[in-house]
Sequence to fold (627 residues):
Amino acid sequence: MSLTIVRLYHDLLGTYGDQGNAEILIHRAKARNLDVELVEVTPGMAVPRSGDIYLLGGGEDGPQSAALEMLISDGGLNYAAAGGATVLAICAGFQIIGASLPDSHGQITSGLGLVDAHTIYDSSPRSVGELVIQPSRGELPVLTGFENHQGLTRLGQDMPPLGIVRSGVGNGFDRQEGIWHGNVFGSYMHGPVLARNPELADAVLRSAVGPMPEFKDPFAEVFAIERRNTLT
Amino acid sequence: MTGSLRLSTACIAGALAGRLSIGLGRGRGETLSGRVILALDPKAISKLGAGRDIILVSGTNGKTTSTKNLTSILRDFAGEGVSTSESGANMPAGIAALLAQKPRNRFAVIECDEMYLPKIYRLLSPKVVVLLNLSRDQLHRTGEVRKVSRLWHETFTKDDVTIVIDRDDPFLEYSVANAGHVIRTTFGGRRHPDAATCPSCAAILDWSTGDYLCPCGLGSKLPDVRADKRLNGPQRNTVLVIEAARLMGAEILADEAEDLINRSPDRIYDFSSAGQTISTHLAKNPESWRQALGEVTSDQVILSVNARGIDGRDTSWLWDIDYSKLLGKKVVCTGERRLDIAYRLSVQGIDVSVASSFAEAAETLANEPIQAIVSYTAFQDLLAADLGINKGNSK
Fold:
């Protein structure tokens, strides 16, 4: 079985190391004998419409606006998501997939609208530090990551968060963190988040390819447990 | 109290505090000395700098070595007294202390933390500012690169100072866009890993020629100095430092300059552990790690990663580095965040193990050459242990 992973504009949305999420997905998919292809989308390239998993990372305000503009005019990511493709969007990427967010001048503008989430530019100090959440779905353990963001994101009423904040800020409303709606995952957690949470990496993979055999990666598990034990 | 009496009282008290701090075994005493001076005379920095020729050095990588290098070049070539911080202090307290020592020295070469540069610049009215480079570093503290660049852009608006920059770096070009006098050195142009978009307007930069250009007008400018494309990071910094020394009157001939560039100080130190001498690179952000990895030639490597404040508390950037240079080598990871780096390497297919300390890492390796790359606080711990100072156990 083959799997196409599309990494979107990591030159623009790669400030916080989230590009590692692609490498972890590839590593864990290959361990299940999946035939994996990584497509790097750079500015000027068309976004493929038939990818299985689309990845967006965190970036600075200006590049975030540039990436959003290109994704709106291309339309490929919206097309793929409407067809059920998996999306994992971190930080600035999470804000981009929502319904509205501030542009680089602070004016509220429309996002891609893959999920009903609204980001505002918060004036309080930037949210920086370790973030620990209790996932909303039973099959995931406690998740950890590092957050570093100014914007806060309010989810629409029917939108399930990825989890509830145990420590840290997260979305900044109702102690919610991130989103997991259908095949769309959003989060403020860097680390990269899939490095620190192999169970989440598998949840993302399963949403694209269905059930998979178990895979025990000793380093991944020891690392995830060490972070959880240190922070809880 | 008059202004000068206040200052001299502050300096005497500061010197006493500094000596007390050294006596108690708490480092070189500069920070405490400076804090006392600034508490007793908040205007001490500008008073102590008045009438002297000040050079500020800032940038992400190589501030401390470049400051020391410029100091020694000025001592050798300009033949005048030069004040500088012996310990690499680069915030206001340390700067006050270094200016208070030998206040009659004509020159002061001052390393400046990126975030404090605007404040120190306004207090001291320097003759020359050297901006070495800007790339991602300590995101939790200094914020993103373009924020530092914007801060500098708003700072350098006067024309009674000369700013020396690497003109291939778009963040530096934006930093000096309003400045009057700039010496631009080119190293042949090279794509900046953090500058896909314009530091000024965030449009996509056109890097197709090796130089960069933005529709808003920001782009590579005509250089004043052309240097060799093959120079490494420390050597590029030496080229900028030589230009700064020349601006201060040092007469450095071409062959002397070449010799200085060849002998560029770097951040490699030899530590002894488990009967071995280990050539150790200090590296603290993606760019300095890339440079250090480029220098790895031995088959055994120790990597030590911490995530205390100055190291950057978020270790995600470890994933932005290509470690393929380490494929086929034996790598041992240590430091408080050894699992972060070990997992990252294992995903890239590198043979990796972990050890609870630098000494234990060295013990697990064979009696053949070992090189190490260590993060900032891990390096400080090694240095302290080497000097026989017990700084407490790292986890």
Observations:
- The first helix of chain B runs from residue 3 to 23.
- Residues 1-42 of chain B form one domain.
- The longest strand of chain B covers residues 276-282.
